[in-house]
Amino acid sequence: MLKVGDKVVVIAGSDKGKEGKIIKTLKNENKVVVEGVHIVKKHQKPTGQETGGILEVEAPIHASNVMIVDPKTKKRTRIGHDTDSKSGKKIRVTKKSNEKID
User: Fold this and answer.
1) What letters, b where the CB count within 10 A reaches 16 and e where it falls short, cover 15-47?
2) Which of 40, 42, 95, 99 could join 78 in a cystine, given CB atoms 3.0 to 4.6 angstroms apart?
3) Whole-prediction pTM value?
4) Residue ranges of domains in the chain
């Protein structure tokens, strides 16, 4: 389960190996938008005060093409779930180092 703000690495596609933070998640389509990854050109018409032109924006990529970066080892890892001993809430942990993900 990926969330906004998670640091991820792209594991497939033309941007393979690039890292960035998740800007937006599209849960229904199972896609995420990562900063600096999958840049496309968008043709924008001028509207009111904004000028038109060709903008470069990040496009969504499928969530299966990214993996979260372990904060301890700085390598890609899978996500597991555990319960917090103090509050009893479900938390996300990394499979490689068992570190808690905020």
Assistant:
1) beebbbebeebeeeeebbbbeebbeeeeeeeee
2) 95
3) 0.86
4) 1-69, 72-102
